[in-house]
Amino acid sequence: MIHDFINYSAFAFLALFPILNPPAMSPIFLDMTSALPDADRHRLAGLIGKNTFILLFAVLVAGGWLLKIFGISVPVIRVAGGLLLFNTAWKMLNNEPKFSQAEQDELKGRMTAKAFFPMTMPVTAGPGSIAVTLTLVPAGSLLMPPTWVNFAGISCGIALAALSVFLFYRYSEYLLRRLGRTGAQTISKISAFILLAIGVQIVWEGIRGLLAAGIN
């Protein structure tokens, strides 16, 4: 039982960590919150980590059921979310402000609301991680029938992935401080370009899924 729990925890964590990619996303988080005091940025990192777990756990529990109710397919989620990611990355590459001054003031006053959109979704936990979470139980059940132990293990893996988001975001300024201002800006631009490419890839995967569904 413990062995199954550990296996499923590792299975979920290893599936989600490369998609969430907190090491690459931490410069983006720092860039988007550059106008905030350190204390507010640290609090925001905690809120994003918590929201990431809540979002992905909710998707694990009820995501497939809700998609069926509203008639929304995973490819459609990928297209919509990929476009949102593309828009965010494009602004970063063109040195457009992530938030206007008014939005920065609002972020300080309504941090809880802003922490979910856009900071958690789609920037941190976007369509890629949602799609992966939707497939965790079906993919895991190929190894053995789903049980409460397997579900608990996958939930633990989601929690570990969300914790990694918090830790990398929380200490992003310390990680980038050693790089210097020029190095940090370079990393931020590279990360933004990668995010742009991820957005395009997610949109393409969604289109391919829609085309495949149409052909079938």
Plain-language structure description:
With 216 residues, this protein is mainly α. It has one domain (2-215). It has helices at 2-20, 22-32, 38-70, 74-93, 101-109, 111-124, 127-140, 148-170, 172-177, 180-215. It starts with a helix and ends with a helix. Residues 139-143 have low confidence and may be disordered.
Give the secondary structure arrangement, pairings included.
Blueprint: H1 2-20, H2 22-32, H3 38-70, H4 74-93, H5 101-109, H6 111-124, H7 127-140, H8 148-170, H9 172-177, H10 180-215
Helix pairs in contact: 1-7, 1-8, 2-8, 2-10, 3-6, 3-7, 3-8, 4-10, 5-6
- Count the E strands: 0
| Rg calculated over all Cα atoms | 18 Å
In terms of quaternary structure, what is this? single chain
Helical content stands at: over 70%
Total tally of structural domains: 1
Secondary structure category: mainly alpha
Strand fraction: under 5%
Average predicted confidence as pLDDT = 80
With helices defined by DSSP (H or I, 4 residues minimum), what is the helix count? 10
Main pleated sheet: none
Instruction: Give the SSE order as H and E letters.
Output: HHHHHHHHHH
